[in-house]
Amino acid sequence: MARKEHIVVGLDIGTTKICAIVAEVTENLAVNIIGVGSSPSRGLRKGVIINIESTVESIKKAVEEAELMAAVQINSVFIGIAGSHISSETAHGVVALKRHEVFRADVQRAVETARCSAVVSPDRRVLHVLPREFIVDAQEGIREPVGISGSRLEVDVHIVTGAITSAQNLMKCVNRAGLDVVDIVLQPLASSEAVLTEEEKELGVVMVDLGGGTTDLAFFSEGSISHSAVLPVGGQHLTSDMQIGLRTSQADAEKIKIRHGVALTDMVMDTDTLEVPSVGGRPPRAISKRVLTDIIEPRVEEIFDLVGREIRRAGYEGKLAAGAVITGGTSLLEGMPDAAERVLDLPVRRGVPTGVGGLRDIVSHPMFATGVGLILHARRMDHQFEKVGFLGSRNGGERSGGILDRIKGWAIDFF
After folding, report:
1. Distance (Å, rounded) from C-alpha 123 to C-alpha 110?
2. N-terminal to C-terminal alpha carbon distance within the chain
3. Among 176, 134, 168, residue whose Cα is nearest residue 152
4. Cα within 13 Å of Cα(123), Cβ side
5. Which of 86, 97, 117, 243 is the most exposed place for a label (fewest CB within 10 A)?
6. Lowest-pLDDT range, 5-14, 130-139, 366-375, 390-399?
7. What is the DSSP letter of 284?
8. In this structure, which long-range contacts are made by residues 305-312, counting pairs with CB atoms below 8 Å and at least 24 apart in sequence?
9. pLDDT of 191-243, one tens digit each?
10. Which residue, among 302, 133, 146, 161, has the nearest Cα to 234 in the 3D structure?
11. What is the Cα gyration radius of the chain?
């Protein structure tokens, strides 16, 4: 029987905004965006929830807006997770092949062996176990080992862990907004799904998601993720610097950053000016635009210097042939790719979400990279919709169950 179109929802809970994206996935796995909703985020700091009620209200507003545009009822969502509590490591697993051929169950055993070899503290839980490479009887570089003959299967995996309390608070907010959490996905992994090409992943690339509270990194080589990191600095730090340097309110500093912000001082003329609102009823002031860039440029350099340090710390210096792809709302600052190239000494491009249809013009914007990536991640998971069920339908949807097996242990710990 032909499968009908189904609904998938990605919910990006960020430090500065919360975005809900609704997509229709067709029987041939094409993704069509049918609804988008966003709301200012009031309850997070550096990717971590600090106010439950404010976050719940922001989620509700974003979801209601998306429901109205898509004409569907949203019951379940894929959500992203980030923050300085995220960490990653590599692990290795080995199993014997009893039938002298690799079967799907053998792959699962090998991955589970690698996961169990990692030491995870009691206050943390595994978010992802991502295979990087399989080895069958010393034959390296295997992507899909099923069906290959041999007597020994090895796997190298990338393990991502997060703090239980942070994930607990995230799930609690979504549940209080009346939604089920289908899966929790690392935000840089989701963003990478939307903005990176397969060629870049093969050559070696770092995806830099410049968010409001954090900068998320995902490294790829030979087609698979090999390292991830979260830096506790983002666009809000630029706004704070401008608020202090320009002696204006945070809201006005944010508006000035969006309208007039430039990442490099040599991209503005001495004669360029702008008007800065004052506080306390004082009249606005006219300043040189160079004063603004003198505030922005050092912070931008600091962000990319931290990215460069992580590249060197992780051992990827000289190994990123495809350079860097920057995305996220902060990447829209004028001159940001040029600033990144100058600091990192790598080719840099600004990444926007691709691979979707429908209302793609609306989501073809770096700020929607994570939301679109969550949907693409959901579609890609084992091509799994036949196995685990969809999240909804035109008449309101159905509660999902299958994917929850991966996080049911979390629910037990949480509740």
Report:
1. 25
2. 39
3. 134
4. 6
5. 117
6. 390-399
7. P
8. 305/343, 306/215, 306/231, 306/233, 307/206, 307/208, 307/215, 307/217, 307/231, 307/340, 307/343, 307/344, 308/343, 308/344, 310/217, 310/229, 310/231, 311/206, 311/219, 311/344
9. 999 999 999 999 999 999 998 888 999 999 988 888 888 898 999 899 999 99
10. 302
11. 22
Among the listed residues 267, 270, 237, the one whose alpha carbon sits nearest the alpha carbon of residue 254 = 237
CATH 3.40.190.10 fits 230-350, yes or no: no
Are 169 and 81 spatial neighbours (Cβ–Cβ below 8 Å)?
no
Residue 25 is given by DSSP the state E
Half-sphere CA count of 387, side-chain side, radius 13 A: 11
DSSP track, 367-410: GGHHHHHHHHHHHHGGGTHHHH--SB-TTS-----GGGGGTHHH
How far apart, in whole angstroms, are the C-alpha atoms of residue 306 and residue 70? 40
Q: Report strand pairing: 357-358 vs 31-40.
A: parallel
Q: What is the largest CA-CA distance in the chain?
A: 81
Any idea where the domains of the chain sit in the sequence?
Answer: 6-84+164-195+352-414, 87-162, 230-350
- Predicted confidence (pLDDT) per residue in 306-349, tens digit: 999 999 999 999 999 999 999 999 999 999 999 999 999 999 99
The contacts of residue 138 (CB under 8 Å, 6+ apart) are: none
CATH architecture of the domain covering 6-84+164-195+352-414: 2-Layer Sandwich (3.30)
Can you give the pTM of this predicted structure?
Answer: 0.84
Residue whose C-alpha is closest to residue 311's, from 300, 326, 323: 323
What is the arithmetic mean of pLDDT over 246-264?
92
Overall CATH class of domain 87-162: alpha beta
Residue 234, CA atoms < 13 Å, CB-side half-sphere: 28
φ/ψ (deg, to 5) at 131: -60, 135
Within this chain, domains 6-84+164-195+352-414 and 87-162 share the same CATH topology: no
Instruction: Tell me the average pLDDT across 266-287.
Output: 87
